[in-house]
């Protein structure tokens, strides 16, 4: 049961963070090393994805 609750909280936190990140403009996302495509991939994936590194 503990694993289920932990997973549920992680999914909830992840969803909230992704929702907040979607509010950022493209310039700010680029500053923190993300793109809209990264956010879309994270939202559709259950696995961790690696952010874009093109701006470095």
Structure summary, number of beta strands: 0
Strand content: under 5%
Which structural category do the helix and sheet elements fall into?
mainly alpha
Radius of gyration: 13 Å
Uncertain segments are: none
User: Helix count, per DSSP?
Assistant: 3
CA-based shape? elongated
* H and E string: HHH
Integer tally of domains: 1
Q: What level of helicity do the residues show?
A: 55-70%
Question: Topology, please?
Answer:
Layout: H1 2-22, H2 26-31, H3 36-44
Structural notes for this entry:
The chain is mainly α. The chain has one domain. The protein is 64% helix and 0% strand. It is built from three helices and no strands.
Features:
single chain, mainly alpha, 3 helices
Summarize the structure.
The chain has 56 residues and is an all-alpha fold. Helices cover 64% and strands 0% of the residues. The chain has one domain (2-44).
């Amino acid at each position: 049961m503990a694993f289920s609750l932990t997973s549920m909280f992680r999914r909830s936190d992840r969803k909230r963070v992704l929702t907040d990140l979607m509010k950022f403009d493209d310039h700010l996302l680029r500053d923190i090393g993300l793109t809209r495509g990264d956010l879309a991939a994270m939202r559709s994936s259950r696995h961790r994805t690696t952010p874009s590194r093109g701006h470095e």
